[in-house]
Amino acid sequence: MSQLALAQSGLELDSLKFQLDDSTKKSKLDVLNRLSFLLREQNITESFEYANLAEKLSVSANDSLNLGRAKSNLGWIFYRTGVWDKAFRYSRDAFLISYKIKDKQGLAMSLNNLGVIYYKQKNYREAIKKFKEAYSIGFEIEDPYVIVRSFNNLALNFLATSELDSAYEYAYRALEINNQYNSIYFNSFIYRVIGDIQTARGQFEDALATYDFAFLTDSHHQLESFEASILNRKGNVLRLLGLYENAAELLERSKEISLAKSYQDELVSSYKYLALTYEALGKLDLAFQNQMAYNRLSELLEEKVNKDRLALISAMFEVEKTDGELRYLRAENDYKELQIKSFKTYNNIYIFGTLILGGLFLWLFVLHRKTRAINLALVENQNKVNQQKEELEKQSQDLERSNNLKNRLFSILGHDLKAPVAQLQGVLGLMNDNNLSREEFNEISYVLKRNVDGLFVTLDNILSWSRAQMDGFKLHLRPTSCLSTINQCIELLQQHADGKGLSFHVNVDKDTKIWVDHDLFQIILRNLLSNAIKYSKKNSFIDIFTFEDKENVIIKVKDYGMGMSKNMLHQIRTQKFSLLESSKGTDNERGTGLGVNLCKEFTSMMGGTIYFESERNIGTTVTLRFRKVLLVEGSPELHPQKYLV
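The chain above was modelled as a monomer; its predicted structure follows.
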């Protein structure tokens, strides 16, 4: 079937190209737009030439129908080449033209174009709205291409928002419509989306079979970009199944194709999954090479995406601003025309006053209502302009606050990161010059180790906070043992505690488990225990204990040290993000103040709560509350669905 579709597509292309030389201007526009549409997934350069020529001829022929379709094709071509601002402008022009001339097919195509642009902007709700409008029109005009394309795009959006049931429903409906109309144009992409849904659900064996079937039914003319994407996905699933050698083979093939054809999105995924696969195989040199390549390429792509997204936002704003100005000018022209008409009317009244006095009063009444409506519209437009101005000023203020926060953070980090490194550099310099004896080094080694440990915690906090601010940051909630995680953190910080003569009193049931992301939970505990050690008095102790209520586990970390001032405690409790001026610990330890913010943010992200209590010279108690792992009645298996965020 795929080969038959390919042959039929080739025949149609040859026929259309033959018609170009022997056609009227009207039919030539139809041929150009059809050629551009058929070639836009095969030869984007040739497709652009046909669409560009169609646009020019449509303007000269004053053919709105073909102008709208040419702009729709150009909008999709610019989207495919990553020029999002032009893609938005052309797609929006196509939408307005189709709406004006009531071309429902053109309207549905431009709605799909706008939807994918909003999808790229990660404005999934607006994208879903556009796709739903498009498939409604598709059903109205009985166009299976529009319906299937809209359903498949809806499945992609719901997959991006982790609404897997909705994503599967729309993908399955797209498949049904495709089969109903005996079409295979979208089969490959639909099956690829279904495979992605199965992977997200953990149905790895099913996902592998679905990806194989997607490749066999590749209806987009065996595109190598599609092959690379399938190899990537299969390699990742094999990695998740623990079949690392097989995964590495597929991922290397994907990387080879992506490098040869400059498929950057597929290439960055290949690097990422290969680094994880080679790490699991113990091939650390290959893992390091691929991880470094991934880091470089992902930074370049992220920079490009940010620039493109900014250009798209700017284009959207300029279009809205231009539309507002045009509406204002049109209203002003209408008002001037009314003034001219009024002058003529008054002149006629002066001439024929007594004859048309009754009709005059009626006409004046109607004129008054029209004038009032126009004035109200002008006032409304002015209010919209003022509102846009206020929004821009607010965005400018938010940007200034963010910039000030960044400068303050860099200032604090610059001081606190530089001091331990400079201290270590000095000691190493003395040792290198043989100016420091072994006994002297042993006396200061504890301080060096403590400062380096503090530097490690600070760097880890910075990386964790930065990762949490990135788009696409995902939680991995799973049953986590409280006692095991607490012991891991204590083991990491034990030397620092021993140096101050501190002991830990842990009263936690070994069977207590909670629904959290293990890495984020470990970061929270490590920061809380590090602060407790930092501000505890020498030769004291730190209490760590838990208890449970019906649905939650409450974890308390209590020290008997310096405590906090009322002002600092109030700031921690009330402000969403506050870069506190970190005070020195009981052994002159320093910090950045970032750890408390990480604890608050990560706890909130996992659906938990955190509460601080403190008194000067008495100590500090931090209370964490997370959902506990429950068993479904009558089943020995864990049942997390009810508790996932």
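The radius of gyration is 33 Å.
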